[in-house]
Every structure is written in structure tokens, then in C-alpha cells.
Amino acid sequence: MNRRPAILGGGPAFGEGLPLVRPILPDVPGVARALESVLDSGMLTNGPTVRRLEEAVASYLDVRNVVAVSSCTAGLMLVLQAVGIRGRVVAPSFTFSATAHAIRWAGGAPDWADIDPTTLTLDPASAAAGTDGASALMAVHLYGTPCNVERLQKQADAARIPLVFDAAHALGSRRKQRAVGGFGTAEVFSLSPTKVVVAGEGGLVATNDGGLAETVRIGRDYGNPGDYNCLFPGLNARMSELHATVALASLQGLDARVARRNELVERFRSAVGGLPGLTFPTVDPGDVSTYKDLTLLIDAGAFGLGAQALGAALRHEGIDSRRYYHPPVHRQWPYIGEPPRRPLPITDHAAARVLSVPLWSHMRDEQIDRLAAAIVAIHAHAEPVAQALEARGEVLDRR
Ligand SMILES: *Cc1c(COP(=O)(O)O)cnc(C)c1O
């Protein structure tokens, strides 16, 4: 059945609205009681609940050390500072800005490398072109898709530099059965509200290197080892007991949520299967992605509308979307002064085509079906939709 897109006068697919993300906490009254007991205890930050969270995550990941911090960004800054970056850090531009900002705050300069055209994660061959003389290699498990960790590790080893993963999206992802979290020198997760495990705000540094973990522990506490004679300029990047309480609750049922997200993605993909000009980033066979985002790649010529126009048409349906990640970081204000040392054709190609659409762990089959049907209908009416958007001045460039 072919419904009429809302921008052409049809009823919106989601009159009630469909947000991009909605975090879920399994047991809200239980969390409220736990928060009450934290408040009663008088110990509000970096106490026993933070310790319990660190232990729970270390055992879930099978990693020796987990250090809870106030955000993934702060965790990345502390890790990069601890491994002593200086000068260039090879990193992808096709990521969230915080990946690059952490490099800058820690005193380094991003040296952009391109991505793999299928997984959209850092391309090991492109990264290898920059590792000579660089001080670290940084990669991102984008959307929860595990990186090619084996090849990246080989390149880091060959250049004798640390390999740090921005694992913000990937708590619950697996590379060849093994949990993301134990790869490289360190991996850093985010617990901010758009991620699959949430604390409100928070981050987790996972590492098998005990010395590095200790430096991050000191670093999250201003650089104070305990005697107020600071060892280096640290941050206040502690996690509060309140945030740790929420995170512990959110950790419950993680594998089931990841499985449900994968099921929803499969369902969506078969519902839109075969639409011309619509493809998806891939996950290597045998790997598990959290699908932090459900991201589409839209080829304007074949689909009939570009990613921006599709996003605008979806807004009329009550459907939220984001361009994760457009513009790529190297084209954002803090970084445009220093052009990439190598061209980034795959990054630019992907950034021009991405659109992330709603996906949350407790979405119903019916909602994902309706989302898919809205996209099918917009595609079926692509030409009049494009004209309507142009007439309204909502989309200036159809590509
Ligand atoms: C969300 C995100 C971050 C930042 O996480 P915070 O916990 O908000 O600091 C870093 N990198 C990527 C790829 C992200 O998506």
C-alpha cells in the first residue's frame, strides 16, 4: 500500500512524533530507591557505587581495569595525556567532534585518515600512511560497528605507538566473540543519554594496563595522588555516585537490548530492501554491533532525494533524524585551518550521504514498520517531495 507523504498533504506517519533516541531504565522505582540511599549516605561522588560499577563493567568486558569518569570526552583526554601524545595523532574525521577535541585538549593535533567504504570505520591502510612519526593511533567503533582491530593493532605495533579506541558507541559490541573494551592500549565508552547504556552523563575507561589505569584514576582527581602534591595537571573528571547508580541499572539487560536492536535493524532492512539508492554501513560477519545508530546511506541520484531532503521530508512525518556525521570533523570550524595531509574521499562521500533515523531498544515492531513505510512512500513520491521542499525553501540542495 502506498501512503501519501505528509509534505504532500498525507497524514503524518507519527502524529505523536518519533524521537531519534529514548533511553530506557528497566526498573525506575528501584533506581529511585537506590538514589535515595546514596543521598542518605552523604557520599555523593567517587564512592562505593562507582567502585561497584567499575567492577561490574570490568567483569562484563573481561578487562583488568575499568575507571569511571564524568564523560567519554574527559576519559579520552586523560588517556591521551597519560600515554603522552605529542604532535600528530592519526584519527578518522568521520566521527563525532569529541574524538578530535580530546586530541586537541591533550595537546595533540589530529592527522586525518580515511575510512573503509563499507564499514565506515577507520581504514587501516589509510591510517598506516600517517603512523610514521605520529604519537598515537586513534580509531572509533562507529555506530557500534567494531573496527578492524587486528590490522590497526599491527600498524600501531609497527610504528610503536599506542592505539586508543573511542568506544563511545560500543558498550555491548563484540569483535569475533570478544567484547569491545579489551582492545588496543585503552578503550573509552560514553554513558551520555544517546548511548545504549546511560548514566545521565558519564564515561568508562577500560584497559588491561594497570599503570595506565592508575594514571587515569589520579588524572580524574585533578592529578592528585592523594597527598595534594599533584603529579600532573589533571581534571575533575570523577563520576558521581548518583550517575553510577543510574549506570548500574542501565547495564542490566544490555545483551538483550543489543539483540533487540539487531532484530529491529534486520526488520527495517527487509522492509525497505531493494529501494534504489538506499544502502547501509556493514558489520563484519561474526561481529556484533550495538547499533547505537541506525544509519542509512542515501545516493541522491538513485533514490530521487538526498539525505538532507529525506531528513526534511521525515520531519513532516513527525520523524526525527540526524546527519551522523555531517559535516565531517575536518570541515568544522576548529579544524578547517589545517587541511588534511591526505585527501579523504571516502569520508566526504559518506558524509554527503548519511542519515540516522530513530532506533531505540524498546521500539515496537509496529513503529519500525511505520518508519520504513514512511521512507518507502517518500521514495515513491521523490520528485514531488523534492519540489515541495524546494518551494518551501527547506532544502536548497537536492543532493
Ligand atoms: C557521544 C560521543 C563522544 C562523547 O561522549 P561524552 O560522554 O558525551 O563525552 C565521543 N565520541 C563519540 C564517537 C561519541 O558519539
Please characterize this protein's 3D structure.
It is a single chain. Helices cover 39% and strands 13% of the residues. The protein is built from 14 helices and twelve strands. The longest helix has 19 residues, at 254-272. Pyridoxal-5'-phosphate (PLP) is lined by residues 71-73, 95-96, 98-99, 140, 166, 168-169, 190, 192, 203.
Rounded to the nearest angstrom, the distance between the terminal CA atoms is 28 Å
Question: What is the H-and-E element order?
Answer: HHEHEHEHEHEEEEEHHHEEHHHEHH
Quantity of strands, as a count? 12
Ions, cofactors, ligands: which are bound? pyridoxal-5'-phosphate
Number of helices: 14
As residue ranges, the low-confidence spans are none
The proportion of residues in beta strands is: 5-15%
Question: What is the helical fraction, as a range of percent?
Answer: 25-40%
How would a crystallographer describe the biggest sheet? 7 strands, mixed
User: What is the averaged pLDDT score?
Assistant: 96
Shape: globular
Indicate the radius of gyration in whole angstroms.
22 Å
Structural class: alpha/beta
Strands of the widest sheet, in order across it, are 1-9-8-5-4-2-3
Which labels suit this protein?
3-stranded antiparallel β-sheet, 39% helix, 399 residues, binds pyridoxal-5'-phosphate, globular, alpha/beta, 14 helices, single chain
List the helices and strands and how they pair.
Layout: H1 28-41, H2 48-61, E1 65-69, H3 72-82, E2 87-92, H4 97-105, E3 108-113, H5 124-131, E4 136-140, H6 149-159, E5 163-166, E6 174-175, E7 178-179, E8 186-190, E9 203-207, H7 210-219, H8 241-251, H9 254-272, E10 278-279, E11 294-298, H10 300-303, H11 307-316, H12 345-353, E12 354-357, H13 365-380, H14 382-391
Parallel strand pairs: 2-3, 2-4, 4-5, 5-8
Antiparallel strand pairs: 1-9, 6-7, 8-9, 10-11, 11-12
Bound molecules: pyridoxal-5'-phosphate.
